[in-house]
Amino acid sequence: MSLYEFEKQAYAEHSFRTICGIDEAGRGPLAGPVYVAAVILPRDIEIEGLNDSKKISEKKREILFQKIIDKALAFRIEAVDEQVIDEINILNATMLGMKRAAEGLAIKPDIAYIDGNKCPDLEGIQAEFVIGGDAKSASIAAASILAKVSRDHYMLELAQSYPQYQFERHKGYGTKLHYEMLEKYGISPVHRRSFLKKLTGAAK
């Protein structure tokens, strides 16, 4: 089933006027925020090349990012920073970002399809999770691209503020290089201390 068949089927089976897709980027990294995007695409639109953000190149993601923003009926991108992640844990931080993104849309959707296996409690919006949704739904795939590209852009900004960690190369993920930089320079203010308990313990 193509990405667009998911929405077509949902529109055909229900009385939805608008469908929102929600996805996140950055649950796993050791540094920086988790980003969440919510997108409402026009009912009859097909964006050429749209796919799960993990399956396409960085260059193609950048092109699709602009196309999605230009063509979406509404979109919202939210970031939940590393301090909040440390306070309430990454799952709750992700749910918070999803709630803010969905409820902050300029158009209130009839339903939000959410990538994963858990839904936030949305005010006045029906929510349904879709496991592997970024490979099944055009709306979720679009959200995955907005979240991923937005987070990557932010990590490039952090790379200028904290050049020693080389965030431009690993985007905060737990690569061999990243751990080597952590061993050399210690933990920065933008690292998730709850993800680095062995290093924070050693630092005490």
Key terms:
alpha/beta; Nucleotidyltransferase, domain 5; five-stranded mixed sheet
Description:
The chain is an alpha/beta fold and 204 residues long. The protein has one domain (3-203): Ribonuclease H-like superfamily/Ribonuclease H (Nucleotidyltransferase, domain 5), CATH 3.30.420.10. It is 45% helix and 15% strand. The protein has eight helices and five strands, in the order αββαβααββαααα. The protein has helices at residues 3-13, 58-71, 82-88, 90-103, 138-161, 167-170, 176-185, 197-203, and strands at residues 19-25, 34-40, 74-80, 111-115, 126-130. The chain has a five-stranded mixed β-sheet with strand order 3-2-1-4-5, with helices on both faces. Strand 1 and strand 2 form a beta hairpin. Helix 2 crosses helix 5. The protein is globular, with a radius of gyration of 18 Å.
Number of helices: 8
How many domains make up the 3D coordinates? 1
Radius of gyration: 18 Å
- Report how far apart the termini are: 53 Å
Query: What's the CATH superfamily, by name?
Result: Ribonuclease H-like superfamily/Ribonuclease H
Provide the low-confidence segments as ranges.
Answer: none
Order of helices and strands: HEEHEHHEEHHHH
CATH architecture: 2-Layer Sandwich
Shape: globular
